[in-house]
Amino acid sequence: MIHNALLLRIRLYFCCSFSIMNLSKHLHHKVFQIIAALAAKEQIPSYVIGGFVRDLLLEGAGNTPKDIDIVVVGSGIEMAEKVKQAIGEEVPLSIFRNFGTAMIKWGDTEIEFVGARKESYRRDSRKPLVENGSLEDDQNRRDFTINALAISLNPNDFGDLLDPFGGVKHLEEKLITTPLEPGSTFSDDPLRMLRGIRFATRLGFTIEAGTLDAIHEHRQRIGIVSQERISDELNKIIEAKQPGKGFLLLDQTGLLEIIFPELHQMKGVEEVNTMLHKDNFLHTLEVLDNIALKTDDLWLRWAALLHDIAKPRTRKFEPDTGWTFHAHEFIGAKMIPGIFRRMKLPLNEKMRYVQKLVQLHLRPIVLSQDIVTDAAVRRLIYDAGEDLEDLMTLCEADITSKNPRTVKRHLRNFQVVREKIHELEERDSIRNFQPPISGDDIQKVFGIPPSRPVGLIKNAIKEAILDGEIPNNFVAARQRMLEEGKALGLTVHQELKREKE
Ligand code: ATP
Ligand code: MG
Hints:
7-stranded mixed sheet, about 50% helix
């Protein structure tokens, strides 16, 4: 949503295109006054540039922007040191001499300083050779016209917008395009291809045709970008309001096949005996967009993206039943560690959470179709544990029928499942189930070491509770333990006292 007052200004700017837009009223953050004073005193031309200016024109100025990029014609590091002194309170300053940049963290805002520079690139690296340059040189090296906008912080023209490539016009037209020739822009630093798709997705913009063609042409150059940077951009695409669009663009430009082959393989439909299966890629993107309406959680969104990932490898046409994807939920869950490892995503509880949701994603659907038995619901509560709500959210997002009556029917069925879950939870406290009798207890009672019978007895008690054969309490569990022990030929060594009862 373009901020109204600014939109009006942008329009005025177009009517009288010789006038320069002045944005001084919108530079609320205290750091701008500090830099302006230093720029005047030290005669170091200084500008705010990039994302801050773009977002200011799109959304208006917040009082605590997340990051502010400052470019100075001179040393960025020296300017940062002077700004730190002038702030007068203790703020952390990080200096990156190799990059000639410095960063101050002031409250929640990161202020990055860089000296204006000219860049040239080598074939094998996205790290440029750098030399000092003018503001124009620095704007030339920016990735997109909407990211090359700068505002002067200098005394003679404080607040003036400097827009050499029509960035404001492109904001109006919702267009992503590069300042210089797109081919060399992307070949120089191929990360820009993903950044472009990310901005188009996040802002709801279109990538200009020539720019899009250039991404396609240079797609193989993505090979010189580190996996961490690629995954970072993928995550930002997934976090957008409508992430599906980003994946369509990745596919259209040929990048998807290179960076996410498993997802690319989901594309397309096959027909046997006039029976088509749905395009699993498009279905997945719909599920992702659906879930994005319900949650901002990155990993729940990843689960949506990966829930059917094993469909291509499990797809089979069976003359009696048509298309089947047997066990795709289990095989999909097994594929996830490999995907996460390659993508340098965390191999920790986040990954296990995604695996769990992928593995369980059909369970509520099955429940909603059959007659729901208490035992089946209890098992789902036990297996999903604290992720049950997220699993239900995933399953509801998975309904992508074009027929509103079918959608309604599915949602109603899920409602029945939800009610049943609620009812059983109140009664049986199965979620985060802790067995009323521990392995230790069993060892003491029968005087045996940790061994297979202990596991067998423990499991039998759990199964009996989940199946509703016995209630979830100590007395019933102790009784079942004694029966199971006897059946295994064990004798009671010590009575079990109940302190926890
Ligand atoms: P956001 O912070 O919302 O992700 P941003 O545009 O501020 O978006 P940053 O990564 O913070 O992105 O970069 C700040 C500015 O630096 C950009 O606006 C752009 O001008 C420039 N920039 C960043 N990365 C590149 C790149 N790979 N190639 C060229 N310019 C870049
Ligand atoms: Mg930024």
